Amino acid sequence: MKTTETPAPVPAEPGGTLTRLTKADGPGGASPGKEKTGGVLNVFSHGVLVIWAIMVALPLVWAVMTSFKDDAAIFGSPWSLPDRLHFENWSRAWTQAHMSDYFLNTVLVVGGSLIGTLVLGSMAAYVLARFEFPGNRFIYYLFIGGMSFPVMLALVPLFYVVDNMGLLNTIHGLILVYIAYSLPFTVFFLTAFFRTLPGTVAEAAFVDGASHTRTFFQIMLPMARPGLISVGIFNFLGQWNQYMLPTVLNTDEDKHVLTQGLVQLAVSQGYKGDWSGLFAGLVMAMLPVLAAYIVFQRQVVQGLTAGALK
Amino acid sequence: MQHGKYRFIVGFLAAPLGLYALFVVWPFIQSIYYSFTDWTGLSPDFTMVGLDNYARMLDDDIFWKSLRHSLLFALLVPVVTIGLALFLSFMINVGGRRRRGGPVISGVRGSAFYKIVYFFPQVLSIAIVALLFAFAYNPDSGAINSFLRAVGLDDVQPLWLGDPGLALWAVMAVVVWSTVGFFVVLFSAGMASIPMDLYEAALLDGADRITTFFRITLPLLWDTVQSGWVYMGILALGAESFAVVHIMTTGPGGPDYSTTVMVLYVYQKAFRDGQAAYATTIGVALLVVTLAFAALVMKLGRRERLEY
């Protein structure tokens, strides 16, 4: 690679020759001079970074703050602190605005789809990764092709397919569709993962008389746990935050998931003009994922970035 | 490993493949077929009309508007997002004070903290983010205009989402806001794997940080940048732009269709206007735009692959 043609070998003592060469050295020793060049950049970079951090955090803090205000304060002075903590906004949103129902629907849909996606996705990926049979490549590319197509194109006929099966506005219908649309990435990710697992263990189990199915569930699946966790988190966030599929396929208000329910509330001007309740609902929907992210920070980042890196 | 192999393969593939074929592949094939019919979606009857829908689309002013907006989404949003993310992640990973005896290049103090905070919007639903910003953009009592009043800018009180000239930019800014953090984390991971001696060598040659960035960091990160670009463009053409435009702008689609994007137009034609066939036609156009975008970025971005 080209850059290595430059006078490379770095002096053995770190910080010695090197820092002197970078014109940072002030008179009388290393540190004051280094402060100068490094310092300016440091102040600058911290300044920029802090500004963006504020830009990211402020809307969220503002939302939490607003959820504790009454309506008059929300419109009168959007930036002032609440006069007292109006917890009644939260309880009103939870019961009267049906946030509890939306929550339950979301948990059911996401729970069902997540399990289904992982089971079916790993089955397909295992077969595609470890067995040779005619059509293997074709099926693999059929699956991963789904990653780059605009979902909206399929949604129009999909609506009628789901309708004809009597699955419109049902929880299990939504689960099946979520699974189907989560499969491309899941199969793609897990196929790569199963290829990296050693085949000898599976062969040994098979020689010992275990069936293929048993080998898969008892040997391979436990070995694939890190991959399943990564792809599971990716799917969890995607399915929890899904908006387009339920908007089209799930128009019955009793079956609404969180994102839909909130948008519905906002569109109808906050139920009965109750903006404070709406904000409470908004924050309620934000907090679980934010909390989960802070706790499982490392896995979330790994799960999400694995998707774009491969 | 041969015994019962095919039975096993069929057994394991049947359910996932069946579900995928039924809900994803089959609707895709159908939608292309429907674009040549006059199907309304409301009744089961329809006839073939050849290329009529396509001819109609080329005469449709709103279609051209939505195409223009979608192209802005696909080209501008990824450029701004990725540019900002590259800048921030370079600051995080290389902008640190040089410590005596430490590595030549180091991250700023608190780099882990920045990465955690920046990532916040990424885990939130784009629908929730859109709702939040719809409130913030409210011209009278929204957080943004109140802030401008508070700092003495009483005359600067844009209508934001109500202003046909501003609405689209306001909506695009929200997509940028919510995605930058993801790329900061992604690029940081890439930067961390660049060997330190390359930086050391460059600094020995007297390169400053800007040169270092363009000569070392960016070329070595290029593969990641490129796949991120495609990924972001597909998102910006599809799900993300649908959610922000559908939720945030009045109409929806903004005053005088000023924010209508292709994916929203497909939705409206199919589920509001009862023109399912025409909707699928616009959908096919969207598919073409998406594939062309991906191909273009791949072609423009092709460089000699650097191994290190």
What would your notes on this structure say?
The complex is a heterodimer of chains A (310) and B (308). With 310 residues, chain A is an all-alpha fold. Chain A has helices at residues 17-21, 30-66, 71-76, 88-95, 99-130, 136-145, 151-164, 171-196, 199-207, 212-223, 225-240, 244-249, 258-267, 275-295, 297-309. The longest helix of chain A has 37 residues, at 30-66. Helix content of chain B is 69%, strand content 0%. The longest helix of chain B has 34 residues, at 61-94. Chain B is globular, with a radius of gyration of 24 Å. The model of chain B has no long low-confidence stretch (mean pLDDT 86). Chain B has 308 residues and is an all-alpha fold. Chain B has helices at residues 5-34, 52-58, 61-94, 111-123, 126-136, 143-150, 167-192, 196-204, 209-237, 239-248, 262-271, 276-300. The chains are: A mainly alpha (310), B mainly alpha (308). Chains A and B meet through helix 1, helix 2, helix 3, helix 5 and helix 6 of A and helix 1, helix 3, helix 4, helix 5 and helix 6 of B.
Descriptive labels:
heterodimer, A: 310 residues, 15 helices, globular, B: 308 residues, mainly alpha, 12 helices, membrane (chain A), MetI-like_sf (chain A)
- Classification by helices and strands of chain B: mainly alpha
Structural class of chain A: mainly alpha
Q: What series of H and E elements makes up the topology of chain A?
A: HHHHHHHHHHHHHHH
Main beta sheet of chain A: none
Q: Segments of chain B where pLDDT lies below 50 for 5+ residues? A: none
Fraction of residues in β-strands of chain B: under 5%
Helix content of chain B: 55-70%
Euclidean distance between termini CA atoms of chain A = 23 Å
Spatial gap, N to C terminus of chain B: 39 Å
Largest interface, Cβ cutoff 8 Å: A-B, 117 and 116 residues
The string of secondary-structure elements of chain B, in order, is: HHHHHHHHHHHH
Oligomer: heterodimer
Segments of chain A where pLDDT lies below 50 for 5+ residues?
1-36
